[in-house]
């Protein structure tokens, strides 16, 4: 399907110190929807996800559980992080682990290159270090503690005290790239999005950048610094490199030139790493900076950021076991403006499932196919003449396709789905107004009945194509029932209204069965 263009998109690689919650799954689904959409637009789309397995946090967690860090990582990857992808139906092209040989070897190549070019030097550093963030904190990043930490300065994200560390480390001369970064943000306003994230990053860089400590000598769980094996690479410097080591840097030049640069989808709490440190690293290495860094908001439960430590973490399976993976994907992409914080509640999930998926889309599909079976013996009508009302639906199909495509170009997934849902609503209204069940009672209205059903079928097929990246399982079932050619995921989404089907429909089970009880 490729038309020669590439769309490389990444999620962050996630720490394996614990099991995933719906906040992690939210990021995975967003990146997956974007990748699927671009694949169906004829682009060479490539989705990368994976796990971050080095650093002090992992070492401490593994030690507390009586295993080696590698044993801990292996266990979590196989029992929790890879299964997450199946739970929410992610179609990733690669899964990288920072303990992979391909990553470790080529990360060392990158580091050696910077060292040889004079971008790294030896120095000493003392500061407050948050093990949870794996980051030295500035005074502005700390807040007054509460409860057992009253009177102490704690990390604003993890709400725990930081540790005062003093180490002799290797430093990356990041301070020399401040002006280049500000020029990058100015010349390419879309480099950091949404606008609130861009403003935050610009403000941070304008305050002046410090050089970055990029090694640790107080523990040994990490990639060895290639010229000094008494140090391991700082976990974030190591982790950020996954985006290029997985794409071929250092070992597959053709692949790397085809895929890079990437679009990074990250949580806003790790925005500075991706929008400041990462492009500075690439500028130093003479490598093109990413195409875009998009910092989405947090999922909130009870007004607080999703967190295992605060017991607000919800396992994705708690939702999918009841509502299914399609409903999970739809809800989080529709209910939350991508780029902003969003609150999760079981009540809202249940209400949207019933009103929008079961009653709105699912019931529409069932009604249309049932009427074709009942009134046309399952044969899809071939019509030569359509009314103004029919043409309006055709116009809506094209309009919402264009609007959704434009929204996806801005990573506004919620806006794309809202545009598509205009067709759902218009089709439901069209059927109510045209009353095909009444037309069927009089043979004299046969031609009109067939025109109405053909119009509804066209609209339904267009919806199947447009919603395929969001609810892949339901749309695959609908596509089969419509007699669509090939796989719905192979249809050109930017020309969704041009879909072709077979001569007949086939039975369709309920796409979104009714759920009586709300869980939570």
UniProtKB/TrEMBL annotation:
Gene Ontology molecular-function annotations: methionine-tRNA ligase activity
SUPFAM superfamilies hit by this protein: Anticodon-binding domain of a subclass of class I aminoacyl-tRNA synthetases (SSF47323), Nucleotidylyl transferase (SSF52374)
Record text on cofactor binding: Binds 1 zinc ion per subunit.
Cofactors that this protein relies on: Zn(2+)
Methionyl/Valyl/Leucyl/Isoleucyl-tRNA synthetase anticodon-binding domain residues: 402-492
Swiss-Prot/TrEMBL catalytic activity: tRNA(Met) + L-methionine + ATP = L-methionyl-tRNA(Met) + AMP + diphosphate
Motif range ('HIGH' region): 14-24
HAMAP family attached to this UniProt entry: Met_tRNA_synth_type2
Function in brief: Is required not only for elongation of protein synthesis but also for the initiation of all mRNA translation through initiator tRNA(fMet) aminoacylation.
Name of the protein in question: Methionine--tRNA ligase
């Amino acid at each position: 399907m490729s038309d020669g263009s590439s769309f490389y998109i990444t999620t962050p690689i996630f720490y394996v110190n614990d099991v995933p919650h719906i906040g992690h799954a939210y990021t995975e689904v967003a990146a997956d929807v974007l990748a699927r959409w671009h694949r169906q637009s004829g682009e060479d789309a490539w989705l990368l996800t994976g796990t971050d397995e080095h650093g002090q946090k992992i070492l401490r967690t593994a030690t507390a559980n009586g295993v080696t860090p590698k044993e801990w990582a292996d266990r979590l990857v196989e029992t929790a992080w890879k299964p997450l992808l199946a739970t929410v139906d992610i179609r990733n092209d690669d899964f990288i682990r920072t303990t992979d040989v391909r990553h470790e070897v080529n990360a060392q190549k990158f580091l050696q290159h910077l060292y040889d070019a004079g971008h790294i030097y030896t120095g000493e550093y003392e500061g407050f270090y948050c093990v949870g963030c794996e980051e030295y904190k500035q005074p502005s990043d700390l807040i007054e503690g509460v409860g057992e930490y009253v009177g102490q300065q704690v990390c604003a994200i993890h709400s725990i005290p930081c540790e005062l560390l003093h180490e002799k480390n290797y430093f990356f001369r990041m301070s020399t790239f401040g002006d280049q970064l500000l020029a990058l943000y100015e010349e390419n306003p879309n480099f950091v999005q949404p606008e609130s994230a861009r403003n935050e990053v610009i403000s941070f860089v304008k305050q002046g950048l410090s050089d970055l400590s990029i090694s640790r000598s107080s523990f040994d769980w990490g990639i060895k610094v290639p010229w000094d094996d008494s140090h391991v690479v700082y976990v974030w410097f190591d982790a950020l490199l996954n985006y290029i080591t997985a794409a071929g840097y250092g070992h597959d030049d053709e692949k790397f030139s085809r895929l890079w640069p990437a679009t990074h989808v990250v949580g806003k709490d790790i925005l500075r790493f991706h929008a400041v440190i990462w492009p500075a690293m690439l500028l130093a290495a003479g490598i093109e900076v990413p195409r875009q860094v998009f910092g989405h908001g947090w999922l909130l439960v009870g007004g607080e950021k999703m967190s295992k430590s605060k017991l607000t973490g919800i396992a994705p399976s708690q939702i999918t076991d009841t509502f299914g993976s399609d409903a999970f994907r739809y809800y989080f992409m529709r209910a939350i403006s991508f780029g902003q914080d969003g609150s999760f509640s079981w009540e809202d999930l249940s209400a949207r499932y019933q009103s929008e998926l079961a009653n709105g889309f699912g019931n529409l599909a069932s009604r249309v196919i049932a009427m074709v079976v009942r009134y046309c013996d399952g044969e899809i009508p071939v019509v030569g003449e359509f009314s103004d009302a029919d043409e309006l639906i055709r116009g809506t199909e094209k309009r919402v396709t264009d609007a959704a495509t434009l929204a996806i170009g801005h990573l506004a997934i919620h806006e794309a789905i809202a545009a598509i849902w205009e067709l759902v609503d218009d089709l439901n209204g069209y059927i109510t107004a045209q009353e095909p069940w009444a037309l069927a009672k009089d043979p004299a209205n046969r031609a009109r009945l067939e025109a109405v059903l053909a119009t509804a079928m066209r609209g339904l097929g267009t919806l199947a194509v447009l919603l395929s990246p969001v609810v892949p399982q339901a749309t695959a079932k609908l596509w089969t029932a419509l007699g669509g050619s090939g796989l719905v995921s192979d249809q050109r989404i930017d020309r969704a209204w041009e879909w072709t089907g077979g001569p007949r429909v086939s039975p369709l089970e309920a796409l979104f069965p009714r759920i009586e009880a709300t869980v939570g």
